[in-house]
Design goal:
By secondary structure, the protein is of the alpha/beta class. It is built from three helices and 16 strands. Helices cover about 30% and strands about 20% of the residues. It is flat.
Length: about 200
């Protein structure tokens, strides 16, 4: 049986969802009007608005917004102030914690993932092509992939992630992950290297 605190929290989450629902409707209408090619840009602008609500109230508002707008959003997750999601395909597991001022690209966050502040999770290493020096980089396209962060992994403050991280990993603060990390390792550095197994 849920504790009184959990029951009150569920009540609060439900009330905030009802408050956020019209905003979700407005976002979906705007996406329909502008078409699928602009869908992520519209979602990102609403994510930016949500990121600016301070304090505990902001955590409830962001929890409600993402629960209603993402394809999968687990229970009891936290998204800190200033954190922006750039892709609506993000999947969030149960009890995920995302710190302040993060940028979240196309990613699957499995259960119990902990993300420190100022972490950037990019949608892979090839978002921008740059082979032709005579063509502006912005005009050369690129490819976006889905990054997976395994259950019970912890990303330290200031980490940049461009590759999959297995379950049970710890990534040291300020590290840059450019190659996949296997399960239950501790990695750090730029580029991130495995220090030891857990």
């Amino acid at each position: 049986m849920a504790s009184l605190f959990e029951q009150l929290k569920d009540l609060g989450n439900g009330a905030v969802r009802a408050t956020v629902a019209p905003l979700i409707a407005a976002m979906r209408a705007e996406q329909a009007l502008l078409g699928s090619s602009r869908g992520d840009a519209v979602f990102q602008s609403y994510s930016q608005i949500m990121s600016l609500v301070p304090g505990v109230q902001g955590e409830y508002v962001r929890r409600a917004f993402y629960a209603l707008s993402l394809p999968r959003c687990g229970r009891d997750f936290t998204v800190g102030f200033g954190t922006v999601f750039s892709k609506q395909q993000v999947e969030v597991g149960d009890r995920v914690y995302i710190g302040m001022h993060c940028t979240i690209g196309n990613v699957v966050l499995e259960d119990h993932v902990t993300i420190g502040s100022n972490v950037d999770i990019l949608s892979g290493t090839a978002q921008h092509n740059f082979d032709d020096p005579d063509v502006p980089i912005q005009d050369q396209g690129g490819s976006f992939v889905t990054i997976r962060i395994g259950a019970n992994s912890w990303l330290g403050n200031g980490t940049i992630v461009m590759a999959d991280i297995g379950p049970g990993c710890i990534v040291g603060a300020g590290s840059v992950v450019v190659k996949p990390l296997s399960d239950r390792v501790i990695a750090a550095g730029n580029p991130a290297r495995v220090i030891r197994e857990r």
